[in-house]
C-alpha cells in the first residue's frame, strides 16, 4: 500500500466528498461533570439502621461518587424555568438567562412555560391555575470548578482520582439553597471579588417534606485563591454549554411555531434532523 498518495476530488473539500461527520452527541460532549444535591440512604454504623444522608453526587464518565462537602469556585450562573411533563415523560425548560424578569422562550413553543407574568393577587386565582404555576419551578444553573472533600462510592468505600479540581455543573432548585449560595456570592462581590477567584464551601442539610426529605445547601466563604491556569478554557466551556443548551430550546420553540414562520424559515426548521436531546 502506498502511504504517500493523497486523495483529492476536483472542486470539493475532501471531508465533504467522503461524507464522514462527527455525530451531534460527540460534537456536543463537554467536560462539565454533573453534580446533584440529593438524599442518600445509608446504614448507620453504630445503630445499623438506614438513615437519610444529605450528599452531593458527582457523575464523571461512568463513575458515580458522593461527598458531604464540596469546595467550589463559581464561573457562570444562569436561571431558567422548568417543569416535569408527565405526558411527554420529560422536563420542559426555558432558555437560560441572567435573570427571570423577561419572557423566555421554552421547549413547548411558548414563553415561560405558560406561567405568565407577575400576579398581583395570587390567592384570587382559580385553584387549578395556582397549582399550574406552582408546578413551574425556577432553577439556578451553576458552573465552575469543584474539589470534593473525602469522596466515596455508594456503600462507603473511599473514591480515588478526585483529588484535583474538577469542572462541574449543578442545578440548584429550592429557595433556601439558592438564597444561601447567593449570600456568599454577594459577600464576595461587595469586596470586589468574583466567585471564580475565591472558594465557597458547600454542605447539605436534610429537611422534611410531606413525601420524604430534601436537601438544603449551606454555603460559607473559603479562601482567596486567585485565578488558575486553564480558567479561561473552563469559562469558555461553561458559556458554550449555555449557548448549546439554549440553541436546542430555541430549535424546539421554532418547531412548535413552524406554522407562524415565513416559508423560508419554515423550510429551514423542517430541514433540521437528528437533533440530539440536551440533558
What does this 3D model show about the protein?
This protein is of the alpha+beta class and 279 residues long. It has six helices and nine strands, in the order H-H-E-E-E-E-E-H-E-E-H-E-E-H-H. The protein has helices at 14-18, 24-27, 127-134, 175-190, 231-256, 263-270, and strands spanning 33-43, 50-60, 63-67, 69-85, 90-93, 137-149, 166-172, 198-209, 212-224. Strands 1, 2, 3, 4, 5, 6, 7, 8 and 9 form a nine-stranded mixed sheet that branches. The longest helix has 26 residues, at 231-256. The radius of gyration is 23 Å and the shape is globular. Mean pLDDT is 86; it is low at 22-27 and 272-277.
**Backbone CA Rg:** 23 Å
State which percent range the strand residues make up.
25-35%
Largest sheet: 9 strands, mixed
Cα end-to-end separation: 45 Å
Element-by-element helix/strand order? HHEEEEEHEEHEEHH
From the spread of the alpha carbons, the general shape counts as: globular
Number of helices: 6
Overall helicity: 10-25%
| Structural class category | alpha+beta
What average pLDDT do the residues reach?
86
Structure summarized in a few sentences:
With 279 residues, the protein is α+β, with helices and mostly antiparallel strands. The protein is globular and about 55 Å long.
Write the layout of secondary structure elements.
Blueprint: H1 14-18, H2 24-27, E1 33-43, E2 50-60, E3 63-67, E4 69-85, E5 90-93, H3 127-134, E6 137-149, E7 166-172, H4 175-190, E8 198-209, E9 212-224, H5 231-256, H6 263-270
Parallel strand pairs: 1-7
Antiparallel strand pairs: 1-2, 2-3, 4-5, 4-6, 4-8, 6-7, 8-9
Amino acid at each position: 500500500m502506498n502511504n504517500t498518495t493523497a486523495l483529492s476530488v476536483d472542486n470539493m473539500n475532501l471531508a465533504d466528498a467522503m461524507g464522514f461527520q462527527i455525530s451531534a452527541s460527540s460534537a456536543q460532549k463537554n467536560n462539565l461533570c454533573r453534580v446533584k444535591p440529593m438524599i442518600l440512604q445509608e446504614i448507620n454504623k453504630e445503630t445499623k439502621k438506614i438513615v437519610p444522608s444529605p450528599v452531593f453526587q458527582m457523575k464523571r464518565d461512568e463513575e458515580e461518587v458522593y461527598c458531604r462537602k464540596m469546595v467550589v469556585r463559581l464561573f457562570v450562573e444562569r436561571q431558567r424555568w422548568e417543569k416535569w411533563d408527565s405526558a411527554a415523560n420529560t422536563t420542559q425548560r426555558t432558555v437560560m438567562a441572567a435573570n427571570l424578569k423577561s419572557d423566555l422562550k421554552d421547549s413547548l413553543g411558548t414563553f415561560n412555560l405558560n406561567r405568565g407574568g407577575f400576579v398581583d393577587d395570587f390567592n384570587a386565582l382559580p385553584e387549578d391555575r395556582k397549582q399550574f404555576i406552582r408546578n413551574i419551578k425556577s432553577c439556578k444553573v451553576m458552573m465552575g470548578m469543584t474539589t470534593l472533600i473525602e469522596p466515596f462510592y455508594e456503600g462507603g468505600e473511599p473514591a480515588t482520582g478526585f483529588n484535583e479540581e474538577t469542572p462541574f455543573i449543578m442545578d440548584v432548585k429550592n429557595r433556601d439553597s439558592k438564597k444561601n449560595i447567593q449570600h456568599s456570592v454577594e459577600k464576595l462581590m461587595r469586596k470586589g471579588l468574583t466567585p471564580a477567584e475565591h472558594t465557597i464551601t458547600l454542605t447539605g442539610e436534610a429537611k422534611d417534606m410531606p413525601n420524604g426529605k430534601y436537601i438544603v445547601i449551606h454555603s460559607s466563604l473559603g479562601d482567596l485563591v486567585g485565578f488558575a491556569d486553564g480558567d479561561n478554557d473552563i469559562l469558555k466551556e461553561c458559556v458554550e454549554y449555555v449557548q448549546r443548551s439554549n440553541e436546542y430550546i430555541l430549535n424546539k420553540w421554532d418547531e412548535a411555531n413552524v406554522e407562524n414562520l415565513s416559508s423560508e424559515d419554515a423550510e429551514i426548521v423542517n430541514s433540521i434532523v437528528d437533533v440530539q436531546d440536551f440533558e
